Amino acid sequence: MVAQARVLARSAVGRGVDRSEQRFEYIQVRSAAADLQELQRRVQRMQGTVVSRTLESLPGLSDLIQLRTGAAYAVDSASLALALLAGPSQAGEWVGIVGATDLGFEAAAGFGVDLGRTIVVPHPDEHWLSVTAGLVDVATLVLVKPPVMVTERQAERIRSRLRQKDATLICWGEWPRCEARLALRASSWIGLGRGHGHLIGQRVRVDLYRGSTPPRSIDLWLPDTDREVREAGARVLPIDQVKAG
């Protein structure tokens, strides 16, 4: 497709077509390639023949973890959940949210989640498992906050579906035998003064657990004052302390 775009551009020069028209032709070809790739993925999802792939991550998280389709992950905070959703969402993937009623749409958009490609089921109640399984069929990344403890049998049912449908699950809570678990272990805020101001940035320490191996840790802005998720150089405070800036 890219080679075809270059041929179009060269032939356009010979016809006296200006640069803006050349760019337009290139964008058309590139868009068609992206649409074809998305169609191929959808066909593979229906056939259940998809091979696991790596999803996009926000720059601050990419050194710590890269989500893969066919796997389930667990987090213990809304901020981590939204940061993990944002990378694939910005890359054009559909995401679903099940049962997380305390996640705000404004906060999600602030992290970079594309609300136009987000499906939300706020109150699945006792049907949370079947709703989650249904969303796995249509969304690449699904965030669920189960109302009850998840059993091994329930977790395996969803894992099997994730492998078939080229999808990834993030559980806000505990998920049996998940691929990895991310935990917020320290936090400090900036933006508050003495009786004035508002919170504009959060520095955190995140621990990543995989199986029985020792955890990896990273200090992040989640987000910084420019609403970006990136690595933080300064050490953060224990999670029960708040810093006024």
Keywords:
globular; 245 residues; 3 domains; nine-stranded mixed sheet; Rossmann fold; alpha/beta; 36% helix
Proportion in β-strands: 15-25%
**Low-confidence regions:** 1-15, 19-24, 236-245
If you average the pLDDT, what whole number results?
80
Structural class: alpha/beta
Number of discrete domains = 3
**Structure summary, number of beta strands:** 9
Can you give the helix content as a percent range? Answer: 25-40%
Helices and strands, in order, run as: HHHEHEHEHEHEEEEE
Shape: globular
Q: What's the architecture of the largest domain, going by CATH? A: 3-Layer(aba) Sandwich
- The separation of the N and C termini measures 52 Å
What does this entry look like structurally?
With 245 residues, the protein is an alpha/beta fold. The chain has three domains: 2-47; 59-172, 3-Layer(aba) Sandwich (Rossmann fold), CATH 3.40.50.300; 180-231, no CATH class. 36% of the residues lie in helices and 22% in strands. It has seven helices and nine strands. A nine-stranded mixed β-sheet has the order 3-2-4-5-1-6-7-8-9, with helices on both faces. A hairpin with a 6-residue loop joins strand 7 and strand 8 (216-221). Helix 1 packs antiparallel against helix 2 (19-47) and helix 6 packs parallel to helix 7. The longest helix has 29 residues, at 19-47. It is globular, with a radius of gyration of 21 Å. The termini are far apart.
